[in-house]
Protein: D-3-phosphoglycerate dehydrogenase
Amino acid sequence: MTYNILISDPLSEDGIFPLRQAEGFNIVVDTSLTPEQLAEKIVDFDALLVRSQTQVTREIIEKGTNLKIIGRAGVGVDNIDLPAATERGIIVVNAPDGNTNSAAEHTIAMLMSLARNIPQAFHSLKNKKWDRKAFIGVEVKNKTLGVVGFGRIGQEVAARAKGQRMNVIAYDPFLTAEKAEKLGVQFGSVEDVIKAADFITVHTPLLKETRHLINKEAFEKMKDGVQIVNCARGGIIDEDALYDAIVSGKVAGAALDVFEEEPFVDHRLLTLPQVFATPHLGASTVEAQEIVAIDVSYDVVSFLNGGVVKNPVNLPSVSKDVLAKIEPYFNFVEKLGSFLSDLADGVPEEVNITYSGELSNIDVRPLSRNALKGLLKSKLGESVNDVNAKFLADRIGIVVNELKTTKSKGFTSLITVEVKTATETRKVAGTLLNGLGARILRVDDFIVDVVPDGHLLFIRHKDQPGAIGRVGTLLATEGVNIAAMQVGRSEIGGDAIMMLSIDKHVEKSGIEQLKGLADISDATPIDL
Structure:
């Protein structure tokens, strides 16, 4: 059988060599198609390979009646309608690892240029000035590099920095002291890292939790003369706060490759002599462009030949009968994972997902992946999806167990997700109630009845008169309205919990005030 492959964006010949080499593949390269032309042409093809130029819309996917796989030669899939592809049973693959080396090398190049004022010195020479004294730099040897975000790229940067005989201290939500020791770096919190570092580089995804992670308060905690590198995502660093920190002398310099708004050509940061920037070049190497194309090409060859793919980014199709039974639980079980992501303290080491009742008799692996997706997404960002969640959990070192029992404790089906960290075990259980929708029915050992939606507040306290009133009064002063409340206790006067549905997120200052109230031992905001 011959498969027709359409490549609609420029890819290097070396990158598509696996396709050229494979037998039974007819490859058509046409990078000049309009959306209308692509929609008309796609009907004849089994696979479509793109970069970021081609917009693979629902219309194009629906026209592709023979389409089986779409490959994105790059990290993201923003230009592909994933829901439309999934509905049609078309698998989408990408190449998330292809730019790791290039991004790490660019980071080190920026760091070294920053330390030695190389761009500024060259600019001076271009202006016919010979001024050696103005550009005295610093050695990086024996300096401390703080790495915020210690995934693939962060670890590659650390390895190169150690080659320059730098000391490295790192933070990552999935990094433990034991893992750090094995990798030869010091482990710390975000605050530990920014306080200790002479140079700081960030390598986190851009999330609600990481937006402006490096802000005015963070700069105030840093050493005088610290230098900043960002080759990860625009928005992790508050650019206005960075400007103020440089002007005040707190920050000696900054090297930036990514920005909150791009193109980045008219920001006051670029007026500062201590700042230099590049136009989002982290993955812009010949090798990276080839690697991402090679990775996607191999996945296309493997899939069309009946094999497995390395980097799927959407949910493979399941039988209609199974899908009909589990699809209503997709969003719910993801929220259970997200709930525990906010609730559990520490790095997850083990996740146990138990299916009780009717769900115990069918293939629930897609649900387990969704639970992991919810657990990991708040830390790893949109790169986590239904398919790669298990792979990412394995890579992080999280043990995942899927358990089944016919005992449903009075419910048709019940799902329990348990997370174990080095310091505690937390669990949440719930179900879908006919006519009432999703409900969380148990948190740890406490029985509740909570709709898993919007802004929630989980409070641990002693079962004492006035505790609930004090919480309500404080939230009122913070302008937070309580929509619903559930209270559970182990025994009269013993440990108890409150689960509040509230109208808006409680800020950090409000949480600290709640923790300071009499009889309140802990308070955790949860956003679903």
In short: The first strand starts at residue 3 and ends at 7. DSSP finds 18 helices and 22 strands in the chain. The mean pLDDT is 92.
